[in-house]
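Quick start: what a row looks like.
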Amino acid sequence: MTDEQKDIFMSSNPDGDADIPEASEQDYDPDPFTIEAADSDDDFNIVLDDGVDKGAKDADANKYWYVIHCYSGYENKVHRAIMQRIDTMGMKDSIFDVLIPTEEEIEVKDGKRRTVERRVFPGYILVQMKLDEDSWYVVRNTPGVTGFVGMGNEPTPLRPEEVKKIMNRMESDEEIYKIDFKLGDQVRITGGPFNDFIGNVSGIDMDKQKVRVMVDFFGRETPVELDFLEVSKD
C-alpha cells in the first residue's frame, strides 16, 4: 500500500461512524482466544491454536476466517465501516466477507413471547480474507477495531471445524428460549385452572418449555406444570 493510498484511507470515514471510539495502540490481543457462547447451557466454545496451517481454508489458497475484536455494542458500525473500506481501497480480492455471528432467541417475559436477534459473541467479528500487509492494514485501522485475535503477534485463523460450528449455529432451526424467572422466584400463573395463583418456581425444563410451580391449594403445596407463557414474574 503506497503512502498516497494510506493517506486516502486514513482520511475516509463512513457516514454515521464518527462516534466510534478510536482503536487502541495495541495491535493484537496478547491472550489465546477462547469464546464461550453467552447465556447458553451447552459447551460450545472456540479455542484457537497457533499455526496458520490449521486455518479454515476455502477453495482459494490462503483464504481464511479471522477473528477481530471491537468495542462491544459497535459491531454493526464496525461491520459497515470495514465493508466501506473494502470498496474504497479496492480490497475485494483480499477481503471477501465480514460476519457478525448471530442467532434468533425467543424471549419470554410477563407471559409474552417475542423473537430477538442475539449476538453469539459480543465484541467479536469474523473477517474472511487473505492476510497480507495491505489487508491487515485496512481491517486493523478501521475505527472501533481494537485488534486481531491470535497467538503472540500473529493473527490466528479459525480451523475448519470451528467455522462449521459457528455457521451451523447461525443456521440452526432449534428454538432458544430466554426467560425472566429462575428457580425459587415467585411467579403469578396467568392461564389454566390455576389462573391468578401465586407460587414459587421449583423446576424449569428448557427443552419442553415447561415450568413447575408450587402453589398453595387448600392448605397444601401442590406442583403445577405450566408452559412458559402461562406464568409471569410477580
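That is the whole record. Residues 4-18, 22-59 have pLDDT under 50 and may be disordered. The chain has two domains: 3-178, 181-233.
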